[in-house]
Amino acid sequence: MTIKVAINGFGTIGKRVADAVDAQEDMEIVGVTKTSPSFGCQLAVRKGYPLYCTFDEEDKIAAFAGAGYVCKGGLSELLSICDVIVDCSPGKVGAENLEKYQNAGVKSIFQGGEKHALTGKSYTSSANHIENLGVNCTRVVSCNTTGLSRTLVPIYELVQGKGSISVNSVMIRRAADPGDSSKGPINAIKPVLKVPSHHGPDLMTVKPEIDITSLAVAVPTTIMHLHAITVNLPLGHGLSTEKVLETWKNTQRVIVMNGTKNKITSTAEVMELARDIGRKWGDLHEIFVWEDGVSLQDNTLYYFQAIHQESDVIPENVDAIRAMMETETDWKASVEKTDRAISAYYGI
Amino acid sequence: MTIKVAINGFGTIGKRVADAVDAQEDMEIVGVTKTSPSFGCQLAVRKGYPLYCTFDEEDKIAAFAGAGYVCKGGLSELLSICDVIVDCSPGKVGAENLEKYQNAGVKSIFQGGEKHALTGKSYTSSANHIENLGVNCTRVVSCNTTGLSRTLVPIYELVQGKGSISVNSVMIRRAADPGDSSKGPINAIKPVLKVPSHHGPDLMTVKPEIDITSLAVAVPTTIMHLHAITVNLPLGHGLSTEKVLETWKNTQRVIVMNGTKNKITSTAEVMELARDIGRKWGDLHEIFVWEDGVSLQDNTLYYFQAIHQESDVIPENVDAIRAMMETETDWKASVEKTDRAISAYYGI
Amino acid sequence: MTIKVAINGFGTIGKRVADAVDAQEDMEIVGVTKTSPSFGCQLAVRKGYPLYCTFDEEDKIAAFAGAGYVCKGGLSELLSICDVIVDCSPGKVGAENLEKYQNAGVKSIFQGGEKHALTGKSYTSSANHIENLGVNCTRVVSCNTTGLSRTLVPIYELVQGKGSISVNSVMIRRAADPGDSSKGPINAIKPVLKVPSHHGPDLMTVKPEIDITSLAVAVPTTIMHLHAITVNLPLGHGLSTEKVLETWKNTQRVIVMNGTKNKITSTAEVMELARDIGRKWGDLHEIFVWEDGVSLQDNTLYYFQAIHQESDVIPENVDAIRAMMETETDWKASVEKTDRAISAYYGI
Amino acid sequence: MTIKVAINGFGTIGKRVADAVDAQEDMEIVGVTKTSPSFGCQLAVRKGYPLYCTFDEEDKIAAFAGAGYVCKGGLSELLSICDVIVDCSPGKVGAENLEKYQNAGVKSIFQGGEKHALTGKSYTSSANHIENLGVNCTRVVSCNTTGLSRTLVPIYELVQGKGSISVNSVMIRRAADPGDSSKGPINAIKPVLKVPSHHGPDLMTVKPEIDITSLAVAVPTTIMHLHAITVNLPLGHGLSTEKVLETWKNTQRVIVMNGTKNKITSTAEVMELARDIGRKWGDLHEIFVWEDGVSLQDNTLYYFQAIHQESDVIPENVDAIRAMMETETDWKASVEKTDRAISAYYGI
Prior knowledge:
The structure is a homotetramer. Chain A is an alpha/beta fold. Chain A has helices spanning 12-22, 39-47, 58-66, 75-79, 94-103, 116-119, 125-128, 143-158, 241-249, 267-277, 314-325, 331-345; strands at residues 3-8, 27-34, 51-53, 84-87, 107-110, 122-123, 137-140, 166-174, 190-191, 211-219, 225-232, 254-257, 287-290, 295-297, 300-307. Chains in contact: A-B, A-C, A-D, B-C, B-D, C-D.
């Protein structure tokens, strides 16, 4: 059986999820939507993805033909032929969309821009794949929360039974996307004055056992977020810096590298490494941890990790589809399948 | 009695300390040193500060005359006429200098670039003025540590007797000075891989009762550092967000302003505020706290503060002189005196 | 006679012009306007400038008292007591304002944000002071045009009678103001697609004899603009690189310094030099020319100059007042008077 | 016949040239060199490129095996099996290398970091392919010069016979590479004080008929260079803005797009477009011209173009190989062949 996947919204996230799904043997893209004929339609055409209109109004659908694109219909028609729809629309329209999906009897995945309350269920591959088996609707959490899940869930599991962990995280965020030339600041640090920030606590929607708070600041860079993380471990945790590093090195979608030895001293060099890997858009699906920035002292674990905002959630969307469709109950097996297919896709 | 103050090293910090001392009624600048005749000498001449050579070699002293500057002698001669010398040399030569100062029987103040071990005594106005009364040598801690002292000591004092506080601080540092065009990064976040960083723990050299750790990252900005701080308060602390704000509003050299209402959303607007105040170099001696970024929830206090790297330690140097000379035992009185004189100096 | 000057709009430009006027012996500030009570009012109060409301509506005037400020009335009242008003309002309201000023019989000066057509007359000190003698209304041109006038008018005068000069200028602009944290780009170069740009040709409103075109790009910096200029000289110009440098060194409000020898390799070090000079806001009224970036080869002169956007036009406003009031017909004498007063004001 | 190509130096340029050559049907990579076993070797292994040592010393060759890499020998051995070697070494060793290549009887291509004097012959596809037919050694000019050649040679050809063109170009350069986190400035504009700069005049090594001068500044961005260009056309040129645009739209390796309509307002959006195209590293081999930034007024043509520093010269290296091997005498046919192969390689 091939899972029929639709993508509602073919922008920064949508175009990436489409390619990742297209790379899988057990899935196919049956359509992607655009609100109107624009440059992004060419990408869909080039990849051979059937093009639909986000709306059902006839004039809006007809506008595509007017611009020379074949549009196969409105959202309703797309919903009639898919098993799952991945909502990559720009947010704020989640509730309205969810109703349409439910009425059409189609399973749906939302992104981290929507609130947990919308779906009542959230997802990361390593935290709660099994809890998402067969659900009709879930939410893949944001890039930051996904990143926290990747490194904190394994630590949580290491000390499970010995006590709880509490986490303090400061998000140093890129202030604008790489293709955005209007947003600043150019020369300033901008605190997110709502404290604590929502990023950390959002992790508890997928792993409530991890007690976490966070603060966030925006800085003048366009390439990656960075997290400065302090974990308070339970007494008698039995861990060491080496044990933590070994665990992460064996964790899927986490890259651990020595910054000093490899001359990777900042997010700039991390992104250059990603370009060399050769995935489209220079994406880095993995979370990057600086080996020599990890230190466990007494009961406190310190580390830094870098997050590629546009792409770390992409493979999680693929895994979430398998969970909802119950075609793979073992999350590690799904991750293995997803990532191998993506790599083959890019010839790497 | 007027305290005779010498400045060894007339660079970024030295020129500011000289002006701040010069503004005081109870002090006078008897000389400043330069290693060789260069642009900075003009500043000294313009201000009327007697110019000395950092070294005692005759040819080095003579070089000044060759460039058209009146040099009154070498460091030894300067040491023979001063009560206190403020060492603002670029670091690494601290030990050597200290010996010279001690041999000359002159009290000395070092800056935060030197280690606590050199002087065995460190200083901030609010933390330990009284412990520095009459000492022969002390160290004014770094800009970051001074900033932490300003806001954390009052919190510590509020809960004294109720239990201890522990602090987690992430320093988001400007990667280069405003006048430095060679250092980067231009578009990256750079973690300081030595963890925990030295900045937080250095606070314990002036206030050992505050348990603190820190992480640091450098970001592409040249104007201010920003601290994202989480304070764990003791159970039964009895504080509230309002109480904390009220305390800081009554704390000298701390500015508390609402970012949203005043449209001060980043360090850029804080620096613009400083330029409007009208101090030379656009300096901001005060620590800036965003009122609407302060939140006390249960036992955890969150806040952000901005630090003007070149200048927050300047008035502390003046207070340290009074402590060492025992001319003012009450730190608050010294701060009042220092700051009023500086303001009058700039006509503000 | 003391010229009574009003400032309409007390923002970035207005507050600077007010201070510069206040520093002059032959002028006084009789009032400054704000649209509503806000932070900027404190600056006016601190300086002792009488505060007026930009509007005449009673409720708007009353709002100031409500916020604790003494407001002496509306714009009409201010117009009834001044000789000249300097319009520093944010633009687009020029025509409306001009009518009010004319009806009140008050001379007025507009800034470079307004078009030449509004006033029919434009002004820079070195280009056409004498043509502005006694006029009722003029426009001080923009920061960029003022900068071009400073260095190009002397070159034009050097070759006058030998032929005409034609100029090609590329403006590399700071994309945001230092206190603006919302505008980008963070990591991009943004061409001003309207070509040629208006900056260069605007010079012809004050010196029509100079044939000039320009292109402009915005780049991620907040501190200064930079001009890359190529001047085509007439055959038989008789000049040399040395002669050009000597001329500029003797030109008021132009600073010529060797970048390599003085380690001033970018606008960052130029701004640091300005902070050392000690003017409020770290302003640099002068145009900065890199001596070692000037080269005359055959008939082509190449050079770079840096422009401090907020401040180079400030002293020109003072000179323009004298021209309009006909109290000083010699532009060089006015400049001398203006600049000496400003320097004295800041104790430099 | 398949041309056997070696790459000496497998860094930023070398790895890209290798992939571009590997994509061609009429060429194959017989080996790439590294100075020592390092991260870059993995890229070569992954692509299946035989690995050689830059040096012939046995211990240096043996070091590769020690790090787990199969090294097939030193440079001499590589030279014994190739027809052409592309020198992508970091510069300054050009003369030494050239002698080795000549002694081995191997044709060689150098990059723009070397001077024209080294090879006595330079190359761009559109300017002088035919003059490079059969030569033993040539130099592919720098990214900036290549960019100038792409848009200026067609203009030159349009007016040929009607008179000469003269060009004034200002290069606004990215100050650091995307993977470089050490270089600044963070917040400044840095003029290249050697005037005129070498970039423009270097065009005359491939097309001496175009009279050109240039100035350069470095700005805080890491992604692209931008050129602001003014062309003086001969009287009676017979061109119009439309004619120029039409010409460039029909020119290979030039992309002309309307910035306003496509919301491509800066180099950030241009790079995002390149990421969407899907070439490895997000490269853009083409020169990007803003359609709405092109204007021909009287005899002056104004335009802006953006240059992707790492990649615009890559396909030129491929064409240069064909010229030297005389396997394709028509430059447009070579370009067509090169670009089609590269596109197919990336599945785009």
